[in-house]
Each structure stands twice: as structure tokens, then as C-alpha cells.
Amino acid sequence: MRAIILGAGGQLGRALTRALPTATALSRAEFDLSDPAALDWSRYDTVINAAAYTKVDQAETDRAAAWAANATGPASLARIATAHDLRLVHVSTEYVFDGTHEGPMDEDVEIAPLSAYGASKAAGDLAVSVAPRHWIVRPTWVIGDGANFARTMRTLAERGVSPTVVADQIGRPTLASDLAAGIPALLDAEPGTYHLTNSGPAVSWADVARFVFERSGRSRTDVTDTTTAEYFADKPAAAARPLNSVLDTTKAEKAGVTLPDWRESLEAWLS
């Protein structure tokens, strides 16, 4: 595979760079999608787009930047992939859904984003879907090399802080290293949209916090539950979040791609 990884400076991009050491890996600073002619696309057969604007709350007021990275950029990649007959892998998010679906969400659940961030990612998905050889991959709650929820909780645990964490948003953590291993394996499957997260039980953010606290030598009781409404009551500018972030990964599993239990992978990441 002659791959190029875009967004190589992010959590997933770094993991992909380690998983695919022969790939060309470019950070956002190293490649600007507004100038696609800057690259010789004939050198590649696969583009993996891990680049994104991920500041969920800031996107509510910085919509132009979110749209440029999450919608306009992927649309340019779709045109490039079509023109050069490239495989295009685009990393999406569960924020394209409104979180009201009961139970795990498969790839056919209706798109209904709640936020500017979610809308920009949904637009990117639609743009990428027109490329003949596309793979749209949706993970949840990514944890890797960089700023993330688990790292924040570990820091709080080590500092002796007892946080209050939302307990009504449900999902599964996805370790960037596991996702980076799973994405290339999906290329053996038919093009299309795939939900890909770690396996294991669906849990709340508060449950994940307790998991991290226990493995940091703290007690589960040091984490206090709250609701999303209560947590954001004094943050009127915050973006709306889907309460259900549990993705159905059956389609990926039928294609032969299953990621490890998130508890095992997160424990290893914390060690």
C-alpha cells in the first residue's frame, strides 16, 4: 500500500504513522488542502484523512474554520481521489447523530447532528461518499497520544482532585492504536461506511473516569456523577452533545475487523 496520512499530528494520525511506517505522514501545517496541486498524487494509491477540526464547543462560534477542515477539505479529497482513482479513508464521528436512537447505532441510523461540529462532520461524510472508492470510519471517544479525557482524569487523580463527571452520555472508548490497526484491515472490505470502536461494555464518561481513578490508586467514590444538563448549566455557549454514542460495529465485525475490549486496551495505555 502506497499511503499518505493527513492529519499526522493528531492522536489518530500519530498512531497511524506508527502503524504504517512506510506511509507519507503530513500534519496540517505540512499540507494545506486549499493547494492540492502541491502533492504528486500519482505516488499514492490510498489517502487516509485523519485531519479534523475537533474543538466541539469552539466550533459553535468558529464555524468557518470547522467547515473548512471538516467539510470543504474532505470534499476536495473526494475530488482528488476520484480523479486519481485513489482509495479514500475518512475518519468521522458519532456526533453526526443526535443520540436519541435507542440502543447501538448502525451505519443506517438517520444523520441528525446537534452541533456546528457535528454538522460540519456530517457534510464531510456526504462529500466523501461520492468518491467511488471511499471508506468512512466512525470511532467514538478516541484516546491516544495527546489531550484526551483519560489523560485529564489521570492528571486529576494524581493531583488529588475529585471531579464531577457526566453520567448520562454513554459510549465506548476507542484507543487510537487499536483504531490505527483496524483501519488498514477495513480496506480489504467493500467500500462504504463502517463503525469501528473498541469492543466491551457501553459505559458513561463517569464510568471511564472511575476506571482511570482506580488504576491511578484512587477510589471509585472520588468521582461524582452529574447530568449533561447540570454540567453545562453555566456554559450557555457549549455545543449540544449526543447522549447515546454507542455505535453498532457488526458491519466491521462481519468484514473481519474487531478491536479489543476497551478495558484491556485502556489499562495497557495507563500502565
Structural write-up:
Belongs to the dTDP-4-dehydrorhamnose reductase family. Keywords: NADP, Oxidoreductase. Its EC number is 1.1.1.133. Pfam families: RmlD_sub_bind. InterPro entries: dTDP_dehydrorham_reduct, NAD(P)-bd_dom_sf, RmlD-like-bd. The structure is a single chain. The chain is an alpha/beta fold and 271 residues long. It has a domain at 3-148 and 173-199 and 246-259: 3-Layer(aba) Sandwich (Rossmann fold), CATH 3.40.50. It is built from 9 helices and 14 strands. It has helices at residues 11-19, 63-84, 116-128, 149-159, 176-186, 205-214, 228-231, 250-254, 262-270, and strands at 3-6, 24-26, 46-49, 87-91, 134-138, 142-143, 164-166, 170-171, 174-175, 192-195, 198-199, 203-204, 224-226, 259-261. The protein has a 6-stranded parallel beta sheet with strand order 2-1-3-4-5-10, sandwiched between helices. Strands 6-9 form a two-stranded parallel sheet. A two-stranded parallel ribbon has the order 7-13. Helix 1 (11-19) crosses helix 5 (176-186) and helix 2 packs parallel to helix 3. The longest helix has 22 residues, at 63-84. It is globular and about 55 Å long. The two termini are 33 Å apart.
